[in-house]
Amino acid sequence: MNKVVEFQQVTKAYGDVTAVKDISFTMEPGKIYGLLGRNGAGKTTIMHMITAQLFASSGEVNVFGETPYENNRVLSKLCFIKESQKYPDNFRVIDVLKVAAALYTDWDQAYAETLMRDFSLPHTRRVKKLSRGMLSSLGIIVGLASRAPLTLFDEPYLGLDAVARGIFYDRLIEDYAEHPRTIILSTHLIDEASRMLEHVIVIDQGKLILDEEADSIRGRAFTVVGPKSSVEPYAADREVIHRETFGGFVSLTVMGNLYGDDRKQAEALGLEIAPVSLQQLIVHLTNDKSGRKAEVAQ
Ligand SMILES: Nc1ncnc2c1ncn2[C@@H]1O[C@H](COP(=O)(O)OP(=O)(O)OP(=O)(O)O)[C@@H](O)[C@H]1O
Questions:
Q1: Does the C-beta of 40 come closer than 6 Å to ligand 1?
Q2: pLDDT single digits (tens) 120-162
Q3: pLDDT tens-digit profile of 157-178?
Q4: Is 223 in the pocket of ligand 1 (CB under 6 A)?
Q5: Where is the signal peptide, in residue numbers (predicted)?
Q6: Ligand 1 centroid to 115 CA: how many Å?
Q7: How far apart are CA 71 and CA 51, in angstroms?
Q8: Which domains occur in the chain, in start order?
Q9: 19 Cα: distance to centroid of ligand 1 (angstroms)
């Protein structure tokens, strides 16, 4: 299958700061990727190399099978929504939409208008007069209505309230189902975004430490709940990554195969089983692989 993004042993240094260290990964068409990691992990640097705003110090970056640098065939297929997008001072919301309509080949104006209503964004308000959350909504509208074959959202929801974030997730999932494309979402809100993510790439201190399908990560652990007397023997020779006690009951998150014997044994003991959050697992896996106590989410 043709790859949308290919990184081969890519390193990026800013002077003596090496932000990205010898990273290799590929991204396929028609998938939603989560690019996750702590502050300063190197996520934005990776997105800037994909979108040809930064050169790699070494290694090879290919997008749609070609180098993206000064390559209009590639760049015309990309839409990059940054955390703090800047617009000319005199621009109104409607001017941003006009520029986007001219820029993106697959732009859908009717869809943009629907999204404008969903996010209650006023057409004629000057962009510099928008609230922080409204500015984020504008970026989200441009990103979704661009329908670009590769759309990148870099922490797109600064200042957005929970309702607006919910609208973003819902619209993205609905629209993606009708118009499959590759989406890269960089976020700290892993639990919130996890229902949309199909594949997860975790960066820690510039290194790639996890590159896996979200479902396969989720299936690696689960939570068992029950009376202490049943839960503790079950947990005795297992890896416990989280523990909560309430009265005589215990809830443990254990590493194990959610779809296999580990689950059957727990069921046989009458323990309740619940899926574990992607965030909790990633925090755990990050700790393991980086050899330090990391906290992926804020
Ligand atoms: N222009 C620059 N000059 C020097 N160092 C930089 C520059 N841009 C980024 N860095 C450094 O590179 C590292 C990675 O930064 P990057 O912005 O890619 O991280 P990030 O994962 O996107 O972080 P966040 O989640 O906080 O946005 C950090 O140590 C940062 O300080």
A1: yes
A2: 999 999 999 999 999 999 999 999 999 999 999 999 988 899 9
A3: 888 999 999 999 999 999 999 9
A4: no
A5: none
A6: 31
A7: 10
A8: 5-214 (3.40.50.300), 219-290 (3.30.70)
A9: 6
- Which protein residue has the closest C-alpha to ligand 1 atom 23? 40
- Among protein residues, the one whose CA lies closest to atom 24 of ligand 1: 39
pLDDT of 289 reads 52
pTM over 0.90: no
Residue of 20, 39, 44 best suited for mutating to test ligand 1, as the one with most atoms within 8 Å of CB: 44
Mean pLDDT of the chain: 90
Residue 105, both tokens: 């080949």
Atom of ligand 1 nearest to the CA of 17: 5
Supply 233's token pair. 């023997």
Q: Is 187 in the pocket of ligand 1 (CB under 6 A)?
A: no
ipTM: 0.97
Q: Ligand 1 atom 30: the closest Cα is on which residue?
A: 40
Distance between CA atoms of residues 40 and 180, nearest Å:
30
Smallest CA-to-CA distance from 200 within 280, 278, 275 is with 278
Check if the beta carbon of residue 9 is closer than 8 Å to that of residue 56: no
